[in-house]
From TrEMBL:
UniProt: substrate binding residues: 46-48, 82, 189, 240-241
Residues forming the catalytic site: 230 (proton donor)
Tree of life domain: Bacteria
Family annotation (SUPFAM superfamilies): NagB/RpiA/CoA transferase-like
Lineage: Bacteria, Bacillati, Actinomycetota, Actinomycetes, Nakamurellales
GO biological process: L-methionine salvage from methylthioadenosine
Protein name: Methylthioribose-1-phosphate isomerase
NCBIfam families reported in the protein's UniProt record: eIF-2B_rel, PRK05720.1, salvage_mtnA
Pfam families linked: IF-2B
Catalytic activity, as annotated: 5-(methylsulfanyl)-alpha-D-ribose 1-phosphate = 5-(methylsulfanyl)-D-ribulose 1-phosphate
Name of the gene encoding the protein in the UniProt record: mtnA
Segment forming the signal sequence: none
Disordered: annotated segments: 286-305
Length: 343
């Protein structure tokens, strides 16, 4: 995803339409607030860091499209278009603060700065996360197998990604035996997007159905589970794609380290615990069928929480771009950085 602007023309957000992958790589140019909100809600752009940058650039779109008061109202609509990933509000708020003081150009500068910070954060997390994984398994005994869920790669950020960025780093270092991608029902971000990204990086990988994960973890052979995050509460409870909590329970049972990889912008000190995190409900249709084909009888009631919360006690480590936090040892993300021994 990036900002694209010709001479004297309004700019657009250029992004891959993630709903069309892996069968087609289609670029979308988003130039209106309505189009951006639509793209966010149907998951053409998705993943917490990507939503943050899209939200910030969305403020620029709003400032191009509307006079000041209407632009501010449109920014609020973008901010609330999906509730769980805190990065969306962080991105909107940053660009909006710049817009209020310096107008459109200041908003664009702030949004592009967030984009650049996101790329740098992903590179830092990749290094820190790969080092942590190597240390948790006791050095570099052999290439390792990582399990992951949803999609946390370059598609979900600006470049490289979070948990998948760590997997890419391990692969580039010759330390990856295989990445196991959970398919991630109901929208199949793992099956459609993570496998596509792993294939492009040339990393060995396997796809499993979500319900195979516990058995495979308990059977041994997985060295760590690496996941992203949509919001990390002050106490370390972490919201991420539905199914993450089950993976954490299974990883604990199997004695496998469970590691959350997310930028500092995903840590939300204003949210005390997981109980305070709003979980997006995406309605029954995505559960009762897929790709326009109904699988459940018409009228079947279905629940579709898009995220779950993994309690801090099940998390071996949270790796951000600036520190490593060990929730299972009682460390909390809200600890100020200068008092944090884990840095
Ligand atoms: O509904 P999605 O596809 O936006 O959910 C995405 C996730 O849950 C990711 O794991 C999370 O945003 C981290 S992406 C680096």
């Amino acid at each position: 995803m990036d900002w694209s602007q010709g001479d004297d023309a309004p700019g657009v957000i250029r992004m891959i339409d993630q709903t069309r992958l892996p069968s087609e790589t289609v670029l979308l140019d988003i130039g209106t607030v309505d189009d951006l909100i639509g793209a966010i809600q149907r998951l053409s752009v998705r993943g917490a860091p990507a939503l943050g940058v899209a939200g910030a650039l969305g403020v620029v779109i709003a400032a191009q499209q509307f006079e000041t008061e209407k632009a501010i109202a449109a920014a609020a609509d973008i901010r609330s278009s999906r509730p769980t990933a805190v990065n969306l509000s962080v991105g909107v708020d940053r660009a909006l603060a710049a817009f209020r003081t310096g107008g459109l150009q200041a908003a664009l500068t702030a949004a592009l700065q967030l984009r650049d910070e996101d790329i740098a954060a992903c590179l830092a997390m990749a290094e820190r996360g790969a080092d942590l994984v190597r240390s948790l398994v006791g050095g570099r005994p052999r290439p390792m197998t990582m399990m992951t869920i949803c999609n946390t790669g370059g598609l979900a950020a600006v470049e490289h990604g979070t948990a998948l960025g760590v997997i890419e780093r391990l692969h580039l270092d010759g330390d990856l035996a295989s990445a196991i991608a959970c398919e991630t029902r109901p929208l199949l971000q793992g099956a459609r997007l993570t496998t596509w990204e792993l294939d492009r990086m040339g990393a060995p990988h396997e796809l499993i159905i979500d319900s195979a994960a516990a058995m495979i973890l308990a059977g041994g052979g997985v060295d760590a589970v690496l996941v992203g995050a949509d919001r990390i509460a002050a106490n370390g409870d972490t919201a991420n794609k539905i199914g993450t909590f089950s993976l954490a329970v299974a990883a604990r049972y199997a004695g496998v380290p469970f590691i959350v990889v997310a930028p500092e912008t995903t840590v939300d000190p204003a949210t005390a615990s997981g109980a305070d995190i709003e979980i997006e409900d995406r309605g029954p249709d995505e559960v009762g069928g897929f790709g326009g084909v109904r699988t459940a009888p018409p009228g079947t009631h279905a629940r579709n929480p898009a995220f779950d919360v993994t309690p801090a006690a099940l998390i071996t480590a949270i790796v951000t771009d600036r520190r490593t936090i060990r929730p299972e040892l009682g460390e909390r993300p809200e600890t100020p950085l200068d008092q944090d021994r884990s840095r």
